[in-house]
UniProtKB/TrEMBL annotation:
Signal peptide: none annotated. Keywords: Cell membrane, Membrane, Transmembrane, Transmembrane helix. The chain crosses the membrane at residues 29-48, 69-89, 101-123, 168-184, 205-229, 235-258, 279-305, 311-331, 343-362, 368-389. Its main location: membrane. InterPro entries: Poly_Biosynth_Transport (IPR050833). PANTHER family: PSMA PROTEIN (PTHR30250:SF26), PST FAMILY PREDICTED COLANIC ACID TRANSPORTER (PTHR30250). GO terms for cellular component: plasma membrane. The keyword Cytoplasm does not apply. This is Unannotated protein. The keyword Transmembrane helix applies. It is a multi-pass membrane protein. It is found in: Cell membrane.
Length: 421
């Protein structure tokens, strides 16, 4: 919760410091970074589970496994950085970023962050909840400190991204490494029982589902940058941040829904009442937000982000409604994951592809984009709920209680990342 508050403060402060046009560039880079974090979240969950079950060994043996993983992650980061630097102009065109070298940092930043996720996973596996919490708060604190310092010194948006994302990750990797060493002791340099590749290929359905959801949540911000000028697309990014507040609520509810539904289904019960309950709680929070965004969109955007953000005022109510529908889909996703269903992945994949198409088919207004997204997300929510309520017991590939809890822990420790941009 503290990390989320810090992330929100950083977002608002950077939006005001950068101005609407430059903030749009930052939002597009961070949106891609957020999508790429999902596989790292899955690695974190797998590491937490294996550490809990003793598969990594104890003490120095587990430390050696983590050390080996980190070595590979740093090599992968260096290789990805070299490739992205060669393709920097193409990446800048895709992201609609004015500084090619900054666009080249997005993918390596996500690869580097994977090392932090693995450290947190091992710490969670030994019950190190307080160190993980400290690393979350520390990461957001460094993002705010480095990002705002660069902005106040007049740095361009590329340098601000570098300072607030990859640079802010480095001291937390060292700090979390120190905390991990205190818990596990020094490495005994034995070979890891579980290889990084094995860890990465575990539970592919949750990884695919959460990655597709991240695309659904962020692809519109990237696509809008291709069809509108920098100021208008920046205003859209700011409105999208405001509208996504209800998604963060859904993420919190999902942390309860996933393990509880898996637990009840494993015992032979009917867990559908859990989806009904969490969806009802979500709507209790979403309806007042929708009313506020409908009756005072100009006031909210100008107070939080500045006067230029009002360019997206007409889109804000529709965006908030679209994000509410997407949040319902997220809860259904968590429910279906717990029961081991897979067919819903087709719905998510089609919807993810449809997001940029909806933006491309807009007329000349942001409002038309938001209405198109609302139609798409409402259809998806209806279909996801239909699949959920037609599913009663756990399927052949249902998540075990320990798997479900590992994924919930991983999502909890990365929920703060979704609060930025």
């Amino acid at each position: 919760m503290i990390a989320n508050v810090l992330a929100l403060i950083t977002t608002v402060a950077l939006a005001r410091a950068l101005g609407t046009a430059n903030y749009g560039e930052l939002a597009r880079m961070v949106s891609v970074f957020t999508i790429l974090m999902v596989p790292a979240t899955a690695l974190q969950a797998a590491a937490a589970r294996d550490m809990t079950l003793g598969r990594l060994g104890l003490g120095g043996r587990a430390a050696a496994a983590l050390q080996g993983w980190l070595g590979r992650i740093f090599i992968i980061t260096a290789v990805v950085l070299a490739i992205c630097l060669l393709l920097r102009h193409q990446l800048a065109d895709v992201l609609q970023v004015s500084q090619p070298w900054a666009a080249a940092l997005v993918l390596p930043a996500a690869a580097l962050w994977t090392g932090l996720a693995l450290q947190r996973g091992v710490l969670l596996g030994v019950g190190g909840y307080r160190p993980v919490a400290m690393s979350l708060i520390g990461e957001q604190s460094f993002r705010m400190l480095f990002g705002l310092a660069a902005a106040l010194l007049g740095a361009q948006v590329g340098l601000i991204f570098f300072c607030s994302v990859p640079l802010a990750t480095i001291p937390i990797i060292f700090a979390t490494g120190f905390l991990t060493r205190r818990r596990l002791g020094p490495s005994d340099h034995t070979h890891a029982r579980v290889r990084l590749r094995e860890l990465a290929t575990r539970n592919p359905v949750p990884v695919a589902a959460l990655t597709l959801f991240a695309v659904l949540q962020n692809a519109d911000v990237i696509a809008v940058g291709h069809f509108f000028n920098t100021t208008v697309s920046g205003a859209y990014a700011q409105a999208a941040v405001a509208a996504k507040g209800v998604v963060w609520v859904a993420i919190g509810l999902g942390l309860y829904l996933l393990p509880e539904a898996a637990r009840e289904a494993a015992k032979g019960g009917d867990p559908r009442h859990l989806l009904t309950r969490t969806s009802g709680l979500l709507l209790l929070i979403a309806i007042p937000i929708l009313a506020l965004f409908t009756f005072a969109p100009d006031l909210i955007l100008s107070l939080v982000f500045g006067d230029q953000a009002k360019l997206a005022a007409s889109a804000l109510p529709w965006l908030a409604a679209a994000m509410t529908c997407l949040s319902i889909s997220y809860l259904s996703l968590q429910f279906l994951l717990a029961l081991g269903r897979r067919a819903f992945l087709v719905l998510l994949a089609i919807s993810a592809v449809a997001v940029p198409l909806v933006v491309a088919l807009r007329d000349s207004s942001l409002e038309s984009v938001a209405i198109g997204l609302l139609i798409l997300d409402a259809i998806l929510a209806g279909l996801m709920l239909g699949l959920s309520f037609s599913a009663r017991g756990a399927g052949e590939h249902g998540l075990s209680e320990s798997d479900a809890e590992a994924f919930a822990l991983a999502e909890a420790s990365t929920a703060a990342e979704a609060a930025m941009p």
